Amino acid sequence: MLRALGLAAAAPGWGDTPIGAVVLGPDDAVLAEAANEREKRGDPTAHAEVLALRAAAAVFGDGWRLTGCTLVVTLEPCTMCAGASVLARVDQVVYGADDPKAGAAGSLWDVVRDRRLNHRPRVTAGVRAEESATLLRSFFRARRGL
């Protein structure tokens, strides 16, 4: 999570929300990492999780299955990112701060544990949650001029 927090802290430098993600392989080695780049790329899908999952898939497994891998992210994944983690077949999602407005790993929705889907990653929530939340609060306060 410390690595994801470091990535998140860099994102405001290019105008993006401070969210960082790291994909760990079955041996806990870092396969890929990313920060949000929606503003930087002009791409609504350039969330940290999606970028990290794409990069990990390019170097691990059969090209898209991330079986045995863990997605670590500073903020609870949204529906798109939660869905991507299910589709990528990650074994576990670890996140920092809850997202009561858009979280899809238990807060607002629970996409990752939906029994109707064919894969359900384990979820560990609240890892370094206060540090993740502090980054986000600082970012939005600065944007709002508070």
TrEMBL record:
Keywords, comma-separated and alphabetical? Hydrolase, Metal-binding, tRNA processing, Zinc
Indicate the segments forming the CMP/dCMP-type deaminase domain, all copies.
Answer: 1-108
| Organism for this UniProt entry | Goekera deserti
Q: Could you mention a single GO BP entry for this protein?
A: tRNA wobble adenosine to inosine editing
**What quaternary arrangement does the UniProt entry report?**
Homodimer.
The answer to whether the entry has keyword Zinc is yes
Q: Does the keyword Hydrolase apply?
A: yes
EC numbers listed for it are 3.5.4.33
- CDD domains linked to this entry: nucleoside_deaminase
Kindly name one Pfam family recorded for this protein: dCMP_cyt_deam_1
PANTHER family in alphabetical order: CYTOSINE DEAMINASE FAMILY MEMBER, TRNA-SPECIFIC ADENOSINE DEAMINASE
What is this protein called in UniProt? tRNA-specific adenosine deaminase
Cofactor(s) recorded in Swiss-Prot or TrEMBL: Zn(2+)
UniProt-listed InterPro entries: CMP_dCMP_dom (IPR002125), Cytidine_deaminase-like (IPR016193), tRNA_aden_deaminase (IPR028883)
